[in-house]
Amino acid sequence: MGDEQFEEGQIVLCHVERIIGTTVFVKIENNINGEGTITFSEIAPGRIRNIRDYVFPGKKIVCKILSIRDNKMQLSLRRVKSNEKKELLEKIAKESSYRAILKTVLGEKSEKIIEKINQEFSIGEFFEKIKENQKLLEDYMDKENTEKIIKILESKKEKPKEIKQIFKLSNKSSEGIKIIKNILENSCKNTKCNIFYLGAGKYSISISGEDFKNLKIEINKVINSIEKQAKTTHSDFSLEK
């Protein structure tokens, strides 16, 4: 695969090559011709006593692109959030798994077919599109190998993810039950969230699906809505840790 198109703010996987003075030089994955640098101030906050506690030649690190000038990139290690790092590593692991499937089924032909796929998509994007349209495989290989890959994908299908949160919600007024019911119904309207009463003013909210990031966003919206409405109706709300 040739050089990937990079942009400022992007999270990338890097390989530490050398350390000179107060600068770390890295090779960015899928960037054949360019090089990246990280100043010590972008390695970690505060004073660094031993740089090798953070980086050393040969180590793989996840960085954020701060700026791009010609073929050189200024990077940061300390500005990468834990969820950003996790998402990139999961994406890389998935792409590695997809490449392994192609190599297992296609053998020696796999490299040429992967190269052909990469002219239009990344391997990850290609397999996401296959989920919507399996016939896309037939543009790159014969029907027999297409069926083999589909069978492998079916056997590896991820189980739906689920997020749960327990919370307390109560209102001591004479209309308390009605108020609580309205809060929960209004907050869950047009969402995939389910709420169950556990007793003693305690509830469980849950949501299931394939994309953990989107599930987290949706359940947080519902919880924020419940909390906001609880304040305006003088209800008591708290999350259980």
CATH architecture group name of the largest domain: 2-Layer Sandwich
Largest sheet: 5 strands, mixed, barrel
Tell me the overall shape: flat
Q: How many beta-strand runs?
A: 9
SSE pattern, N- to C-terminal: EEEEEHHHHEHEEHE
* CATH level-4 homologous superfamily of the largest domain: EIF_2_alpha
Distance between the termini: 46 Å
Kindly provide the radius of gyration, computed on alpha-carbon positions and rounded to a whole number of angstroms.
25 Å
**Average pLDDT score:** 92
| Share of residues in helices | 25-40%
Low-confidence stretches: none
The CATH topology of the largest domain comes to Alpha-Beta Plaits
Strand content: 25-35%
Structural class: alpha+beta
Q: What's the CATH class of the largest domain, please?
A: Alpha Beta
Q: How many helix segments?
A: 6
- Major sheet: arrangement of strands: 1-2-3-5-4
Domain module tally:
3
Describe, in short, the structure shown.
With 241 residues, the protein is of the alpha+beta class. The chain has three domains: 70 residues, Nucleic acid-binding proteins (OB fold (Dihydrolipoamide Acetyltransferase, E2P)); 73 residues, no CATH class; 79 residues, EIF_2_alpha (Alpha-Beta Plaits), CATH 3.30.70.1130.
Description:
The protein has 6 helices and 9 strands; from the N terminus they run βββββααααβαββαβ. A 5-stranded mixed barrel has the order 1-2-3-5-4. Strands 7-8-6-9 form a 4-stranded antiparallel sheet, with helices on one face. It is of the alpha+beta class. The two termini are 46 Å apart. The protein is flat, with a radius of gyration of 25 Å. The model has no long low-confidence stretch (mean pLDDT 92). Helix 1 packs across helix 4. The chain folds into 3 domains: 70 residues, Beta Barrel (OB fold (Dihydrolipoamide Acetyltransferase, E2P)); 73 residues, no CATH class; 79 residues, Alpha-Beta Plaits, CATH 3.30.70.1130. It is 37% helix and 27% strand.
